[in-house]
Amino acid sequence: MNFEQHAPEANKFIRELAESLERNHDTDHAYRVLRSVLHTLREVITPEESLHLISQLPLIIKGVYVDGWRLSAKSRIKNTDDFLNFIREQNPSLAARDFGNDDTAKHYVHCVFDSLKRHVSTEEIQHIIDQFPMELAELWLTTKNE
């Protein structure tokens, strides 16, 4: 398998996310934000739903999603505060720099979710939203432009 053939698609995904984050040339930042949000997302949805989600992602982004995944451990993320706190726990040394205050963190979550909406079917996104507690579902239903 030639993994280099998959790099352009993943790089495009990260560059588009960096642009959404208004950090056009900081793909390292975009990667850290994406990784933290994906790792938090997998704590909310079932493993089966995670598999449906990642089946539609670029190969390298799939690897980001599953990196360090422990199926036996599930957090109890019930609200937006829990979600944002869990995101920051993914990279504590850079959390303040990468996510700033809660408004910035929410904006970045919206950017990641919007990126996922561009790469994943509407039906699959709806299945994910259906698994979110009501308050958290609003993170999907409110776009960064609203």
Keyphrases for this structure?
single chain, 146 residues, mainly alpha, Globin-like, 9 helices, 68% helix, globular
Quick structural overview:
With 146 residues, the chain is an all-alpha fold. Helix content is 68%, strand content 0%. It has helices at residues 7-20, 27-44, 47-54, 59-66, 80-89, 95-99, 102-119, 122-131, 134-141.
CATH classification, class level: Mainly Alpha
- Which percent bin holds the helix content? 55-70%
Beta content: under 5%
> So how many helices?
9
**What is the fold-level CATH name, i.e. the topology?**
Globin-like
In terms of per-residue confidence, which ranges show pLDDT below 50 for 5 or more consecutive residues?
Answer: none
What is the CA-atom radius of gyration, in angstroms?
14 Å
Main sheet makeup: none
Return the CATH architecture. Answer: Orthogonal Bundle
Structural class: mainly alpha
Distance between the termini: 42 Å
Which outline best applies?
globular
- How many domains, as an integer? 1
Q: Count the E strands.
A: 0
- Arithmetic mean pLDDT: 91
